[in-house]
């Protein structure tokens, strides 16, 4: 597990920093620092690059950043919003949310950039794509049924089926590497809590009693989930076992800390 790395974002005053650290939170190093927000870091399948959204140009734009060299390339800077990058398992394409045609819709785009290909054709907000481990499906969030829920469709686009039915507000899907579990955030009353669904049985388990959970991400061994939350009035990065029985707070940065993503095993 400790041959893996995590990425997360902190905010101190007007300074936003993207960090890369060991999986236990130690050894954090700055990948990017900016006076504008940085959100949605997403590790490439080989663990050598991060895609993320930066607001440096005063609007959301998607970059891919090489960790070792610090070099980065602009992937999506179209009219409107460019957000929620997610890597396909082959590392060659990204799923992104673009509003260039009006509402927020899902597109695929080459990891080197280029012209995106539209995947959804709804009149609703479709966002937060994530690929299944075999690359055949995309899970995403849509309000096409009236409130945000998790759906899935073929990775090339096509008919979507609803996946989450418990609760009226479910967002931020994350898939385990073995393809068996879906983690997501469900709003229960006024609280946002981490949940896990067994994709075979459909059984849903609430893993936390906290009220401000966000951004779940599985460890590469599928046994732990990393997420951001508030503990004792302060932001924290936590891990939870997939049954919710054991939770641990990560070491490292303090302050306003969020948007964690757990990287793959280093090849």
Describe the structure.
- The chain has strands at 5-12, 15-22, 29-34, 38-43, 49-54, 61-66, 72-76, 82-87, 93-98, 105-110, 117-118, 126-131, 137-142, 149-154, 161-162, 170-175, 181-188, 191-198, 204-206, 214-218, 224-231, 234-241, 247-249, 256-262.
- With 267 residues, the protein is mainly beta.
- The strands form six sheets. Strands 3-2-1-24 form a four-stranded antiparallel β-sheet, with no helix packed on it. A four-stranded antiparallel β-sheet has the order 4-5-6-7, with no helix packed on it.
- Strand 10 (105-110) and strand 11 form a beta hairpin.
- It starts with a strand and ends in a 5-residue tail after the last strand.
Characteristics:
267 residues; mainly beta; 4-stranded antiparallel beta sheet
What would a concise description of this structure say?
With 267 residues, the protein is mainly β.
């Amino acid at each position: 597990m400790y041959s893996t790395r995590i990425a997360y974002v902190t905010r101190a005053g007007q300074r936003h920093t993207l960090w890369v650290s060991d999986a236990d939170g130690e050894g954090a190093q700055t990948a990017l620092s900016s006076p504008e927000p940085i959100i949605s870091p997403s590790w490439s399948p080989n663990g050598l690059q991060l895609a993320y959204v930066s607001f440096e140009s005063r609007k959301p734009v998607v970059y891919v950043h090489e960790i070792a060299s610090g070099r980065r390339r602009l992937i999506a800077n179209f009219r409107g919003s460019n957000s929620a990058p997610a890597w396909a398992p082959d590392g060659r394409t990204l799923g992104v949310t673009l509003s260039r045609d009006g509402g927020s819709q899902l597109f695929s785009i080459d990891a080197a950039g280029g012209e995106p290909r539209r995947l959804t054709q709804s009149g609703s907000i479709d966002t937060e794509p994530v690929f299944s481990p075999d690359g055949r499906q995309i899970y995403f969030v849509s309000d096409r049924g009236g409130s945000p829920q998790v759906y899935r469709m073929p990775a090339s686009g096509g008919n979507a089926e609803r996946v989450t039915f418990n609760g009226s507000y479910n967002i931020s899907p994350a898939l385990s590497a073995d393809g068996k579990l879906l983690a997501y955030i469900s709003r229960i009353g006024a609280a946002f809590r981490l949940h896990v669904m067994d994709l075979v049985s459909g059984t849903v388990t609430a893993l936390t009693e906290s009220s401000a959970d966000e951004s779940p991400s599985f460890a590469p061994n599928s046994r732990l989930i990393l997420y951001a939350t508030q503990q004792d009035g302060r932001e924290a990065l936590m891990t939870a076992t997939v049954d919710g029985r054991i939770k641990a707070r990560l070491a490292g940065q303090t302050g306003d800390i969020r948007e964690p993503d757990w990287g793959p095993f280093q090849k």
